[in-house]
Amino acid sequence: MKMQLNGVTLQSIIGLFCVSQLVQGEANPVGLKQIDFQFPVLERAATKTPFPDWLTAFTGLKEWPGLDPPYIPLDFINFDGIPDYEPYDQNHCNLVPRESCSFDCHHCIGHDDVYTCSKLSQTFDDGPSPSTTKLLDQLEHKSTFFNLGINIVQHPEIYHRMQREGHLIGSHTWSHAYLPNISNEKIIAQIEWSIWAMNATGSHTPKWFRPPYGGIDDRVRAITRQFGLQAVLWDHDTFDWSLLLNNSPTTEQEILQNVVNWNKSKTGLILEHDSTEKTVDLAIKINQLIGDDQSTVSQCVGGIDYIKEFLS
Ligand SMILES: [Zn+2]
């Protein structure tokens, strides 16, 4: 039996875009790693996505999970094809074998990973958040948002607005786990619950996936590909989250100067975050610098927006 979602079988779809080269590393601000912002804890919203009956039938549960979602076995997952690299901590790249093709440790890109774009384009991780609405108020082009499942079910109204305004929404896991350091089952849980949050809230199934902290290697890819997901990385990192630190090693001016430099080539994918007011304010300034001639990730590579869109 294959997994049934709203009565439709979830099938793998082979991605269209292939690259097979190493991404050029950014000039990192002093002391910063190429990681993204720590998972933000959001306040409870008044309404949230109802837990659907079909998901109760499938999981036996009645409410959305917390930060550690339970693993629900799926018949279509083939564990035999998953490499058995030892899980490793985010700060221990010295333990990571080169053959695992780690993006965050070695800037290695999988053959079907997307990491750049023919038009310089912003992308936003970690939402939806109350700050996302301010960004949506300003955006005059279609952009790409990689959302956390746990935030989606807390802010369905912001998710619906993103959808209504034509933005592309991809998965950023359920609760921002660093995937190379957890078991295959826990990776599956992070992915399946993020997909279910999107099914239940947006009546669609994502095609595009951004790993938290850029934490992806061939073990993680072997799992996410079985969901039909295609990884989206980046070639320009704003390190916008670092502005939230005391004694930030970079300044807004330095970040904006980087954007000016990136804008000379007019190509690339920029990593940003719509999880806080500060990073959203910066995103609006970046948008003003590079304008609205931008692409969504699917437009960048001539791909589809979603694996499935259901009638809601
Ligand atoms: Zn993130």
Structure description:
The chain is an alpha/beta fold. It has a domain at 116-242 and 250-312: Alpha-Beta Barrel (TIM Barrel). It has helices at residues 53-59, 103-106, 132-138, 149-152, 156-164, 184-202, 218-224, 252-265, 277-290, 297-301, and strands at 4-5, 8-9, 121-125, 144-147, 168-171, 204-206, 208-209, 230-231, 236-237, 269-273, 306-309. The protein has a five-stranded parallel β-sheet. The protein is globular. The chain binds zinc ion. The site of zinc ion (ZN) has 7 residues, from loops.
Specify the structural class: alpha/beta
Main β-sheet description: 5 strands, parallel
Bound molecule types = zinc ion
| Strand percentage | 5-15%
Anisotropy-based shape: globular
Number of strands: 11
CATH fold topology of one domain: TIM Barrel
Q: State the low-pLDDT regions, or none.
A: 1-37
CATH architecture group name of one domain: Alpha-Beta Barrel
Per DSSP, the total helix count is 10
What is the mean pLDDT? Answer: 88
Q: For this structure, what is the CATH class of one domain?
A: Alpha Beta
Major sheet: arrangement of strands: 5-4-3-10-9
Name the CATH superfamily assignment of one domain. Glycoside hydrolase/deacetylase
Rg result: 18 Å
* DSSP helix fraction: 25-40%
N/C terminus separation? 24 Å
